[in-house]
Structures are given as structure tokens and as C-alpha cells.
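As practice, study what follows.
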Amino acid sequence: MDFKLHKDFSEIDSTAWNALVEQSAADTPFSRYEYLSEWWQTLGGGEWKNAELVLVSAREEDRIIGIAPLFIAEYENQRALLLVGSIEISDYLDLIVRADDLPRFLSGLLDFLASSHGDAWSALDWYNLPDDSLTLGALKAEAASRGWTHHEEVYRPTPRIALNGSFDAYLEKLEKKQRHEVRRKMRRAAESGRVNFYVVDKSADIEPELESFFHLMVQDPNKANFLHPAMRAQMTSTLRAAHAGGYLWLAFLEVDGVKAASTLCFDYKNKLWGYNSGVSFDFKELSPGWVIMAYDIQWCCENGRSEFDFMRGDEEYKYRMGGVNRFVMRARIER
């Protein structure tokens, strides 16, 4: 296996990168070339101030075997190797490698990093690994074989709703009180004659739709603080790339022709990944945030999607809508 260090994302073919993502266990929107390369341009919308790219690929007989998108930064008083995308705006991260190739790829990668950058880092600190990632066990085994310190912990919950039937079947799985509440809110919205739900067509001009989404997002003061200029630029480039790739999913709930709520998801691998949302405070009497969430799930059921993934965070509404916890992990190795 021939390992190579790359100075820039452009040195790896994007088509080959994404083909490997789709064959790997790391097949999420956050592992794709367009997402990680855009993230690197702004270092996560300014989350990191100083970082050195350590982008490593491995080939065998001219066939790409694995990709390790890493960077070195000062973190918790150590020079650490982190996964590109860390930490706050990328819900799932991992090495990009086929399951069968993972053990030998990881072993060779650690040898390569120790020899090529041995003096530049003292720890691996990898966040947002899915709790079922094969990388977790492989890291633990490698650390033990090398006499390195290993620590693993739950980082954050990622509630999800499994869907395999009609919307009525989904509702029947909710607690009785919540089921009646969802139905009541949807019925009240429908009977008002004021509400319209729609999903933006994938061929539409996305720019005005993104502006409308951001306008709703910043109605929440916490989200307004989060969406500073660098982060807005980061999100805009990411969403443009997802739209160009055909997997951006953006829905709006209108009240009296005015956009009152929006959900922004990735429509990927036959499920919706809920990335962010925005709600106006002007139409509280119609509960637009709850209503659009119900319409989102109804859309999933009617269009054969197998899951709605709320992604990171333990907000109450996720569980009231039927979310069941999975988790992302933090794995840390010190030499």
C-alpha cells in the first residue's frame, strides 16, 4: 500500500474520492469531496484559526484504497491530528475506506504519520465518529499494539426516526399524547386555509431560496450569533455544492403566502439528514415549527425514505417527534 501526502484537495480526483465514499462505511454527506474541500477553505467558518492540512491517500496497484482527511492544530495544549470537518458543523466524520481494507489502511496510516510527521503531533483526537464505526475498534486495537494511550467517550446523541411505512404508521409509534398533538396541529393548520408546504425543486435557482432560509434561521438569537459572516459564507458554499450534487433538500411552510418556517436537509442514501431549520415568530398561533416537522416526516413516508436523522443534539422536540438515540463518539490516542 503506497501512502502519499497531499498539499491540497485538488491533488485527489473528486470523482474517485466520492466513489470511495459510496463504497465505504463513511458514506455520509460530510465525507464527500465537495463538503470537506469547502470546509477546508474556511476552516469550518472560522472555527479554526491555524491548521496544517495533512491529507493522506493510499493506493494499491493504482487503485485508491483509503483517504485520511486530517489536519494538525493546537488543541487542548497538544499538537493533535484531527479529522477535517472537526468539530462543530460536521455531524458525522470518519476515515474514507472500504470496511475490508480498514485494518491494514489504519495500521499503515499510523506508521506513515509517525514517520512523515512524527515530530509534529502527539495525539490523534477524532470527533463525531458514528457509534457503529469500525474505526473505533480498529483504533483501540492499534493503540494497544503500539503501547499508546487510548480513550473513547460518547460525544453527543444523534436521534433518528426509523420509517418503513405510512405516515399513519409513524404516528401510531408516538406516545398517545404526542400523537394527538401532532394531528391537532396539522389539522388546525390545514383548516385555517392559510398554510402551504412545499419542497424546493432540485432544478430551481437556489440563491433566493437560501436567502429566505437564512432570514428565517436568524430569527433565533442563538442561531443569529452562530451565523456570523464567515459561517454564513461556509454554509452557503456547502449548500450550493449539495444543490449542485442533487442532494440538497429544502422545504418551506408558508402562511398567507409568507415563508414562516423552513427545514434544510440532505436527501442522501434514501433518508433525510436534518441539518438546520428556521422559524418566524410571527405566526405562533399556527405552530409553524411543529407543523413543518410533521410535513417533513410525512414527505419521507410518502416518498419511501427509510429514516429521518435529526443528527447531533438532544433538543426536546426531537424526542417528542419519535427520535431514538444513537451517538457520535470521540476517540483520542496519545503517543
Remarks:
- DSSP finds eleven helices and 14 strands in the chain.
- The chain has two domains: 2-156+330-334, 160-309.
- The CA atoms of residues 163 and 306 lie 5 Å apart.
